[in-house]
Write a structure and sequence with these properties.
Elements (H helix, E strand, L loop, with lengths): L28 H11 L7 H18 L6 E4 L4 H13 L4 E6 L6 H14 L2 E5 L3 H14 L6 H17 L4 E3 L4 H4 L14 H11 L12 H9 L4 E3 L9 H12 L12 H15 L3 H11 L5 H9 L5 H15 L3 H9 L12 H17 L5
Parallel strand pairs: 1-2, 2-3, 4-5
Helix pairs in contact: 3-4, 3-10, 5-8, 11-14, 12-13
The chain binds zinc ion.
Zinc ion binds next to helix 1.
Length: 378
């Protein structure tokens, strides 16, 4: 049994992450790397950020001239994408096409938030409803495969739809809610994500799927690379150019369209909620709140003391948790007993299944070429 150790600057610890390292002052590698990134310009909540944001908006508008839309974005109903949609449409005057994947697990609150937001922002919203039978079967296959990232089918379908619309409407820009302020610390252990890795997805499907997956819009890493490098579809992360403060964003959205925030990050969808609060913690020993709170410490939105207090609260109300789990399992056609047995076993790594190793290698090579010779991009 190893000794419990927690970082002296943030709230990451060696129970949630066995890859964590500490320096001589007890500061973890996550915190040090995040600070280094911030210092090298990953987060610019200052005059430089203002300047870059202005340039970004001008470029997006220029590239959108004569087209149906200036840019495209995915809306989950969560805070990051909702706030970005509001800023983009209302404050920056961008003509946004928004895409939402309704996988059948949206909470009522998320549905209401998305509806209110898009109406108030006058945003064109496309709602994609993937084939429920195939989508649920694929998600079920990921549970049976016992890997950490059960959101892989969800995310892949969203990306496939986004790139599909981008090409259909000849849109060159994505707005991404990805941001440093609330996400600069992301846990690395337990396999990582394989969102666009169709080799991985197909292997899990082949081993545990019971239905075809031909009706699901999906895309490979190679297709994405093609879209980025050849079609020049650019992903913009404007939240890194502003002082992105969670509490202020919640309040602004509330005042603007009655947006109601969820208890925490990623809880807008019942499946995601079960994955974040139950699956990761009970099967993989990962308390996702630790990286979220640590990110906020890095970006100066929370003290370590307050984060520790936050961690003392129960993660998931038990009655609510059982209701959520039962709702998810009913849709996935999985017995609670089977699920509990799976959760009780140690988790598997995505590398226990096939992954697209060739892509990882090729992507590295192409990045080097592109960087050196400035070909292919834009
Ligand atoms: Zn730390």
């Amino acid at each position: 049994m190893k000794e419990f150790r927690r970082c002296t600057k943030c709230v990451m610890d060696n129970m949630s992450d066995e890859t964590i390292t500490f320096d001589e002052n007890g500061v973890c590698n996550y915190f040090l790397e995040a600070v280094e990134q911030m210092n090298s310009g990953s987060y610019l909540p200052n005059e430089e950020g203002k300047k870059r944001l202005k340039e970004m908006i001008l470029q997006i508008k220029k590239d959108g001239e004569g087209k149906d839309y200036d840019c495209l974005m995915g809306i989950s109903g969560g805070l990051d994408s909702s706030y970005l949609a509001y800023l983009g449409a209302v404050k920056w005057g961008l003509r946004i096409m928004a895409v939402h994947v309704d996988d059948g697990f949206d909470t009522e609150l998320a549905k209401q938030n998305i509806k209110n937001l898009c109406a108030a922002c006058n945003i064109d919203l496309k709602v994609i409803t993937p084939d429920a039978e195939q989508f649920n079967d694929l998600t079920r296959a990921f549970i049976l495969a016992e890997v950490a990232d059960l959101a892989t089918p969800q995310d892949n379908v969203l990306f496939a739809c986004l790139y599909g619309y981008a090409k259909e409407h000849n849109i060159k820009h994505f707005l991404s809610g990805g941001n440093f302020a609330l996400e600069c610390i992301l846990q690395k252990s337990k396999g990582g994500t394989n969102t666009m890795d169709m080799v991985h997805i197909r292997d899990v499907h082949r081993k545990f799927g019971t239905k075809p997956m031909d009706k699901l819009p999906m895309m490979t890493n190679w297709q994405r690379l093609w879209n980025v490098k050849i079609h020049g579809i650019h992903t913009n992360r404007p939240l890194n150019y502003i002082d992105y403060n969670r509490n202020r964003a919640i309040q602004e959205l509330k005042d603007f369209c009655g947006f109601t925030y969820y208890e925490a990050k990623h809880l807008e969808n019942t499946l995601t909620k079960v994955v974040q609060l139950y699956w990761y913690y009970n099967k993989f020993g990962v308390d996702k709140r630790k990286s979220h709170l640590s990110s906020m410490i890095v970006s100066g939105q929370m003290t370590r003391e307050d984060a520790l207090k936050e961690l003392e609260k129960p993660m998931y109300d038990e009655t609510l948790m059982n209701r959520d789990i039962d709702e998810v399992l009913a849709k996935l056609n999985l017995e609670r007993k089977t699920f509990d047995d799976i959760v009780a076993r140690p988790g598997k790594l995505s590398s226990d299944y096939k992954t697209d190793k060739l892509f990882v290698w090729a992507n590295r090579m192409i990045s080097i070429i592109v960087k050196d010779k400035k070909v292919l991009v834009k």
